[in-house]
Write a structure and sequence with these properties.
This protein has 302 residues and is mainly β. The protein has two helices and 27 strands. This is Pirin family protein.
C-alpha cells in the first residue's frame, strides 16, 4: 500500500464553512478513523446543528478556538472549549446537538472526527466522556510541543477510555528540527497539517504537506524505516490513526456499521421517530435525507 495525499473539499456544517477531508475517494479510512472535518478558521460563526442520530461510532471534537455546547439523549450538557476533549460513543444509538452557546457567534476553528467502533462494540451502550485541558498529557520533544488527545504517543497516555488501538495527538513545532515518529508497524497513521508545512520522507520518497492536506502512511513493511519529518518553527498539525478494523464499514448519512442491515434499521427507526431518544432541552430534529427526497442515496461503502 502506497502513501496517499488527500486534500479536503469544501462543505458546511450548521452554517460554519469547513473542509471535508475524510472519507475521500482515494482513502476511506485511516485506521479506525472514517470521517474528518476541519471547520474554520471562521470569524463570528453561529454553529447550529440540531439533534441528529448516530450509530456505530465515536465522535471526537478538538477545538483550536471558540466554544460549542454539546447536548445528547443521555442528558449530557457539556461545553467544549479550546484544548478540551468531547468523546461521544454512539453504540446502538444516540442523538445529539452541537450549537454555539446562547446563539452567540464564535471565532470557530477545530476538527471533528468519527472513529468507527469495533464489531464487538458497535451495538453496545452509548456514552460520553469529557476531559479537561489540564488532564491531557502535554510535553516537548524534538522541537515539538505535543498534546496527547486520545490513545498513547511517545510513552504518554490520554485519560480518554478507548476499546480499540487508536491515537490522536496535536503537535506544534517550537523550533526548526527533524525527527522520526515511532508507531506500531500494524497501524495506519495520518498527518494533517492545520497551518504551515511539513516535509515527510518515507519509503524512499519525500512528501511536502501543506495546510489543509492529509498524508496517509500505511502499516509499515518489514525493513522500512520510520517516517522522517522536517519542519520549521510555527507549524501546527495533528497525527491520528491506529489499528485498521478487520471489516469494511458502510455508511448511511450519520450512521456507520459493519453490516448494512444495521444501517437500514437505524434509518427506518429515525424516520419513524422511534428508538432514538430526544435531546432534553433541544426539541428540534434533523430529518434523514430520504424523508425529503425519496431518491436520496442509501448505503455507501467505507
Amino acid at each position: 500500500m502506497a502513501v496517499i495525499k488527500v486534500i479536503g473539499r469544501p462543505a458546511s456544517l450548521g452554517g460554519a464553512p469547513l473542509a471535508r477531508v475524510l472519507p475521500h475517494r482515494s482513502c476511506r479510512a485511516v485506521g479506525p478513523f472514517v470521517f474528518l472535518d476541519h471547520f474554520g478558521p471562521a470569524e463570528q460563526q453561529d454553529m447550529q446543528v440540531a439533534p441528529h442520530p448516530h450509530i456505530g461510532l465515536h465522535t471526537l471534537t478538538w477545538l483550536f478556538s471558540g466554544e460549542i455546547l454539546h447536548r445528547d439523549s443521555l442528558g449530557t450538557e457539556a461545553a467544549i472549549r479550546t484544548g478540551e476533549v468531547n468523546w461521544m460513543t454512539a453504540g446502538a444509538g444516540i442523538t445529539h446537538s452541537e450549537r454555539t452557546p446562547n446563539g452567540q457567534p464564535q471565532d470557530l476553528h477545530g476538527l471533528q472526527c468519527w472513529v468507527a467502533q469495533s464489531r464487538a462494540d458497535e451495538q453496545g451502550e452509548p456514552g460520553f466522556q469529557h476531559v479537561g485541558a489540564d488532564d491531557l498529557p502535554r510535553f516537548s520533544r524534538d522541537g515539538v510541543r505535543w498534546t496527547v488527545v486520545v490513545g498513547h504517543w511517545l510513552e504518554e497516555h490520554s485519560p480518554v477510555r478507548i476499546n480499540w488501538p487508536t491515537f490522536f495527538v496535536e503537535g506544534r513545532t517550537e523550533a526548526s528540527d527533524t525527527w522520526e515518529w515511532p508507531y506500531p508497524a500494524i497501524w495506519t497513521m495520518g498527518i494533517y497539517v492545520v497551518s504551515g508545512s511539513l516535509t515527510v520522507s518515507y519509503d524512499g520518497n519525500t512528501h511536502r504537506v501543506v495546510a489543509g492536506e492529509l498524508l496517509v502512511i500505511p502499516p509499515q513493511e518489514q525493513g522500512v524505516p520510520q517516517p522522517h519529518v522536517e519542519a520549521l518553527a510555527g507549524v501546527q498539525f495533528v497525527c491520528f490513526g491506529g489499528e485498521p478494523l478487520p471489516e469494511q464499514r458502510f455508511f448511511d448519512w450519520n450512521f456507520v456499521a459493519s453490516d448494512p442491515a444495521l444501517l437500514a434499521s437505524a434509518r427506518a427507526d429515525w424516520m419513524a421517530q422511534r428508538r432514538f431518544a430526544p435531546v432534553p432541552g433541544d426539541p428540534e430534529r434533523i430529518p434523514h435525507p430520504a424523508e425529503q427526497d425519496q431518491d436520496a442515496p442509501g448505503v455507501a461503502e467505507g
